[in-house]
Amino acid sequence: MKILVIGSGGREHAIAKKLSESQTVEKVFVAPGNAGMQSKKIETVMIKESKFDQLIEFAKENEITYTFVGPEIPLMKGIVDAFEESGQRIFGPSKAAAIIEGSKDFAKQLMVKYEIPTAKHQTFTELEAAKAYVLKVGAPIVVKADGLAAGKGVVVAETVEEAIDALTDMLEDNVFGASGSRVVIEEFLDGQEFSLLSFVDGEKVWPMVISQDHKRAFDDDKGPNTGGMGAYAPVPQLRDAMVQKAVEEIVKPTASGMVQEGRYFRGILYTGLIATKEGVKVIEFNARFGDPETQVVLPRLESDFALLIDAILDGREPTVHFREGGITLGVVVASDGYPGSVENGVKLPDFSTLESSQPIFAGVKEGVDGLVSNGGRVFLLVAEGKDMKEAQKKIYTDLAKLNLSGFYYRKDIGNKSLFY
Q1: Closest listed residue to residue 171, CA positions, set 135, 147, 198, 195
Q2: Whether residue 227 is found in the same domain as residue 268
Q3: Is residue 65 part of a domain?
Q4: Considering the chain, what percentage of its residues have pLDDT values greater than 90?
């Protein structure tokens, strides 16, 4: 098989790497990819994610078996529809189905209609009405831009003033453009968050091992929200019975509800969940693999990933089996200043000193003398351990050896699993 992966980040590097492990795969092309991905079986292609016609032409010319879509924006813009109309096999939800991520208001309406547990909420387009609602219900409270905002459109406001500032940014100052022209205000939910990813084909659901992301920039969950500073899988402090209940009462009804709404979903459904005292509730849905969760979930997949996706595309029952036991841990190394403005072109360290972990590359490009930074989240180190303490020791020992001037990382990824 020859497979084309769409995207350029750490998620796509992890996807391409896992696909390339299959003996049935001859070559994995990644468009546009990044300079850190290149390997014996992985080749980058200089075609932008938005150039659907060029990507389809490439798939035809290179006899691509199927295309796998990593990021959300091409999905929202209908890349799956375009490929299918041209007779090309592609894995991911249609534009109509990708709205489950593209509009938080749509997702909320879906959950209300199909009785899927989530936070109480209201949607607003006018600043004064939104401010009045916040003044009425108080804080802490959560303010979300309705559309896509690269993981930064969610503000957990601990005071009314913070909430009103966030609303002003979105509805008046257009910080997120059209994505923030409508906001969803939610009650604050307390509990441990976790990510439940599933392979979905209509009403059929094959759940993956759960993981836990770390969204805040700094240790002890301080600082602004980011696209994710690290993750681990599985999440030992959360009971299997609770996860199974979430699959039955949340993921399956969501997949079924999308079919009933005429928005048949085939692809990866990311369900962001929180374990509250009242039970598990939905925080958000994504229409694709999460980042950095993918980097710790896929290494645990023991089934042939390439054949698994091929089976789903053919309407056959896939083999889905994840390794049990141990911990897979990933820590993101980001450019100083992230998630704000960053300096690109900073030389990356020498990775030859790594003993127990592997880099997965995201915001990098080729410099004059090796890889340099090209974005906020630059790379992730991933390691396996028999338990969390061993995995942490491996990664943080390796990180301490690297020259990371101009970069930063959290030093507490996975700590929540140590205190249950």
Answers
A1: 147
A2: yes
A3: yes
A4: 87
